[in-house]
């Protein structure tokens, strides 16, 4: 593979991560915030795989598998919290969820 | 080879931008699945075939199904049928369909010409990944299993409280 996609792969990963971070900052719906977190972890995985391909080593893909496991665990707990918040408050607005007790 | 990468990267960025700016959760999920497929095409171009398969199966398959289940559980009642009909109009799914068609055309082009196979130095076979995973990274695998167990127990605990606690908005859940 030529050198150009390997460098720009990291740029694409950075842009995807920035989009995910913007989603976390700008959206107030908890479901969209979780989705943006997934975008960010996915971008980190893209950076790992790109770096692994740059060196021709399997370590990048190994770390991508770890990222998959972490994202799956995160999404399971996060979506359970989303359901809990909706049952409790009737909304997914995180600004309305400032009373964690009660 | 480069233009294929740039097409896939542009599709990933456009779909992600639409995903974080969509007003409805299902539209955002559709665009995010297209974004994941585009990233899988990028993995394929980088020579990481195993990671590309995992991206489609685990991310776009399993994790997104969890999101869709939650969106389904948040929209109960007879209004959801009308909303479902509203979602099936072409204006809703045309954008993701066009982006996915671009990615599918790239894949068909690779399969027809064998261009994706001529990778060279960057290509990493799945066997190498497996050897590294259960060789020097064995402790990491064990730690990942602990993280998954913690996620399982945490999600079960929260779901158990969802079924039991009184005073919730909906009471049709029963004993979990």
Could you give a quick summary of the protein structure above?
With 102 residues, chain A is mainly α. Chain A is built from three helices and no strands.
Helical percent range of chain A?
Answer: over 70%
Strand content of chain A: under 5%
Structural class of chain A: mainly alpha
Unreliable runs of chain A: none
Shape category of chain B: flat
Give the count of structural domains of chain A.
Answer: 1
**Please, what is the oligomeric state?**
heterodimer
Q: What distance separates the N and C termini of chain B?
A: 53 Å
How widely separated are the two ends of chain A? 57 Å
Describe this structure in words.
The complex is a heterodimer of chains A (102) and B (176). With 102 residues, chain A is mostly helical. Chain A is 79% helix and 0% strand. Chain A has helices at residues 3-26, 30-55, 59-89. In chain A, helix 2 packs antiparallel against helix 3 (59-89). The longest helix of chain A is centred in the C-terminal third of the chain and has 31 residues, at 59-89. Chain B has 176 residues and is an all-alpha fold. Chain B is flat, with a radius of gyration of 20 Å. Chain B contains 7 helices and no strands.
